[in-house]
Amino acid sequence: MKHSSVLKIALTTALIAAISVPAFATQSAADLAAEGLPMAARTVPVPIGISPQMQALIESRVVSETMPAAETVEEWLAVQAQLDAANAQAAEMMLAKSGATYSTEEIAGVTIYRVTPAEVKPRWADTVFVHVHGGAFVFNGGKAALNEAVWMAHGLGVEVISVDYRRPPLHPFPAATDDVIAVWNNVIQQYDPAKVAMFGTSAGGNLTLSTLLQLRDAGLPLPGAIMAGTPATDLAEVSDSWLTLKGLDPLGGHDGAIEGTFALYAGDTDAADPRLSPVYGDLDGLPPSILLTGTRDLLLSDTVRMHRVLRDAGVTADLHVYDGQSHGDYIAGYLIDAPETKDAWRELNAFFDLHLN
Amino acid sequence: MKHSSVLKIALTTALIAAISVPAFATQSAADLAAEGLPMAARTVPVPIGISPQMQALIESRVVSETMPAAETVEEWLAVQAQLDAANAQAAEMMLAKSGATYSTEEIAGVTIYRVTPAEVKPRWADTVFVHVHGGAFVFNGGKAALNEAVWMAHGLGVEVISVDYRRPPLHPFPAATDDVIAVWNNVIQQYDPAKVAMFGTSAGGNLTLSTLLQLRDAGLPLPGAIMAGTPATDLAEVSDSWLTLKGLDPLGGHDGAIEGTFALYAGDTDAADPRLSPVYGDLDGLPPSILLTGTRDLLLSDTVRMHRVLRDAGVTADLHVYDGQSHGDYIAGYLIDAPETKDAWRELNAFFDLHLN
User: Which residue stretches of A99-221 are H helix?
Assistant: First the structure.
């Protein structure tokens, strides 16, 4: 057989498979495929479709191996304290850069941080946004929570109340959402709930969605709109992108520490309970939701699955996917001047402007 | 150092990197990182967040190595003929399954297929959708184009005109969009352009966007809304997901045959010309656009980059990303009863209902 004939047959097979006819595997190949699709080892360069600032961030990125979970409550508490402290320092930089200020208050027995931006925009003069911080349910408490709270306050020119909810290992579900709900019920004594947004990233996106489900079930007023940024929406199963994108995201992987935090947070509750895994919930009646993620985000699948079930339930839900970004990159405060950051603020402002009363 | 201390430090390092503080690499690690991020070899199981029908499709999937480009015009024509024939057979199945019918006509010297669904929905009784087929610019001509045309006609209950445009290797750019524009100018003699949608997948998404840019620049009426399904939007550079997702998508890869088709299509025109790479275009004034892709789609990055620049230009643009889907899986006609297919039809119908006059 001549080279060109071999080439033609090979090309034909590949392109038929590629374009519209299903590929029927041989038996042995099908057996292999049943275990999954092989991805070869590779080194991927910095994405081309992003800003120089974001390229520099990704160029400096070193992705560690997945770390094991801590083994004792003491170990978890020690790691928690170290991370909270490190991220509280980052929050101080964010405050200094943005000119935002904050006060520490107590609402319904829960510590909150009230963040005031250097300039409150007239559109947001009569409201406040409620922030539920991320950090795998276990981390980023205390002043570390200010990172994203300041990011939103500064970016949109809005006052933010950030809830310092109780966390594992000492306080599993439902302590965190109990605290968010307690603060919410106080906030809506002072503000029209239809004017108030709730938002969070990662575990904070999960807690925001879980709070909505619980408020709705209790017949309580809901926020007018929410942001669920790259939310963990399935604590029961491992969504696809945890596996396909591993190596690209500083979050590491699902096994080990992350799996450990999910288990700690769930405690004795079934991980498939919609209050833990909102992707399995009845989403009827939820408010307009904006979801953000990136093409290198280990929670890309969790996010797009949530987007689909929200839309399927008739909820207004918009999705924005940033090329090359990993988990939570859009709130990278040190990129305050990056086009991607300004783009996210523009989208959030437009979305909340449209949907909040 | 005790095990628990090592663990704590390792966990702390990983989680600090993960959650909000940038990781600063050592010099040698930074040098490595500058070349890119390493992804280890792996086998990924069938995604959990999809329907049994879509799981079965992916389970049977075998992804071939990237194939070399054909080397001569004769070879390209031979492959083209083989693929056109194979996909024309698939189109026959699609017609039989859906009960749609078609006629072959000539408009402005261009062959078109007019597809009539078994039932035209009242909402679409006074319009027609114009289809620009995909197939890497080179393939899926003739009756192969009917696959997606029937998919849309059947799913929405709308008459579709599919343009059998001229293709490489004999006819590089701008022959294809010249043909689409010629047909368009005829269609709008009979229909209100604001009521007409244009749509296409892959190369068809590219050609749809390119057509819009050329119509706008010529001061001609634009369609009322468009669908750009997993569009190839950057023929000049290799977007990130071509590399990160390689191995998961039957499309194969960018190098070899695909790169060859892009070069054939571009001919003597600079690949960065916005009429070839619409992601670099001035998008001002484009009509509402709906974009679809999947988390295992090699053109995920091309699609989300296009979504962002459309939004940045003030164009109404909605993005839907299907978990676990590879390139063009949503138009897999043999999955006519899959929930994902019905979901895509529901979104398209709602989008066009909202935006077409």
Answer: 146-156, 175-190, 203-217
Q: Which residues pair with B201 in a beta bridge?
A: B229
Q: Are strands B101-107 and B110-116 parallel, antiparallel or unpaired?
A: antiparallel
What average pLDDT score do residues B198-227 get? 98
Specify the residue for token string 């969009």. B177
Angstrom distance (rounded) from CA B16 to CA A62? 12
**Top-confidence residue, B67 or A191:** A191
Whether A79 and chain B come into contact, CB under 8 Å, resolves to yes
Of A72, A79, A243, the CB nearest to B44: A243
Length of chain A, in residues: 357
CA-CA distances (angstroms) from residue A84 to A73, A76, A135, A150, A260?
16, 12, 9, 16, 18
- Quick check: B350 contacting A, CB < 8 Å? no
Q: Is B10 part of a structural domain of the chain? A: no
Cβ separation of A46 and B36 shorter than 8 Å?
Answer: yes
Q: What is the CATH number of the domain that holds B321?
A: 3.40.50.1820
| Cα B134 to Cα B140: distance, rounded to the nearest angstrom | 7
The reply to whether B29 touches chain A by the CB within 8 Å rule is yes
Q: Is residue B31 part of a domain?
A: no
Q: Do B307 and A320 touch (CB under 8 A)?
A: yes
pLDDT digits 0-9 by tens, B106-115? 999 999 999 9
Predicted confidence (pLDDT) per residue in B342-356, tens digit:
999 999 999 999 999
Domain that includes residue A342, residue range: 67-355
Total count of domains within chain B: 1
Apex CA B340: angle with CA B335 and CA B342, to 5°? 85
Distance between CA atoms of residues A229 and A327, nearest Å: 9
Decide if B321 is inside a domain.
yes
Q: In the prediction, which pLDDT does B67 show? A: 82
Task: Please indicate, yes or no, whether residues A13 and A149 belong to a single structural domain of this protein.
Answer: no
Residues A30 and A129 in one domain: no
The residue length of chain B stands at 357
Phi, psi of B170 (to 5 degrees): -80, -30
Helix, strand, or coil here: B60?
Answer: coil
A67 touching chain B per CB within 8 A:
yes
B170 reaches A (C-beta below 8 A): no
Q: Is the dihedral of CA A287, A293, A295, A299 positive or negative?
A: negative
Dihedral (CA of B287, B290, B296, B297) sign: negative
Q: Considering Cα of B233, then B234, then B239, then B242, what sign does the dihedral take? A: positive
In chain A, which residue's Cα lies nearest the Cα of B335?
Answer: A22
